Amino acid sequence: MSAATSLASAKTPRRGSPRYSLTVPVDVIALRSGIPITLPGRCANVSEGGMAAIVAGDLCQGQEVAIDLRLPGVGMPLRAKTVVRYHGPMRCGLEFVGLGTEQVEMIRYWTQRLAPVAVLAGLASAGEAGDERQEKPALALMDTVQAAPRKAVKVRVVRRGFELLLAAMLLCAAAGWWQWRRSWRELEGASADRTAPVRVSPETMTAQILSKTEPAYPEEARRAGTQGMVVLDTLIATDGTVKRVRDISGEEELAKAAMNAVQQWRFEPYRTSGQTSGRALEVETTIAVDFRLN
Which class is 2-102 in CATH? Predict the structure, then answer.
């Protein structure tokens, strides 16, 4: 039995249902000769069924890959298994496979936030242009009232009523603009307050390993002749311990053994600059464990 270990990163595309335009970085993990490699890319659009992306690498139709995508405004990154449904020059379509309830809810939560933000942005642009449209008929009405012959008292009454109406309209417009600006700042602030872990390349984190435990080959899997690659999503704390580990792909029995082993790994804390100075950061990475029978 041999269990070789390596690290890699992940990405996220999507297709199907209503599509929502989204241009954010995405990582795709593909296996090449049994070795996981990370292909960087950029998401084009997302739906509940899949995504489209521009990927810097060759993929084959029907190929299974893992993706890692961070939806704007959603605290946790979306990591899932996908199947390549089409692949053209630089662009590909990926279909999600076996999404969990949490992953589906993450996508729905993000898509439902698009409409409110779009409406607020639309109100803001309409409010700026609307002030000029409202002032032009107002000035025309004022000129007409001023031109009325020898009816000074009536003109003053009409003008005063119009000025009150115009003031009320301007106040409403100003209040709407202020409310929009406050809501927008709250949205920006909520996004900025979330401190997300830093995603670090597999090669970098390999050099950070202080100690690791080799996974034990499950006896039932050995008797059944089960073997293959397990890909794990891993969160490393600021003190170098493994804070969280979840399986992305692989046989269930092998995945449990791999997670039990990786949970005991220890890393040199990853810092903002250098290895002896700088603030320690939480790190996200992907660990691949290959189970092979001799």
Answer: mainly beta
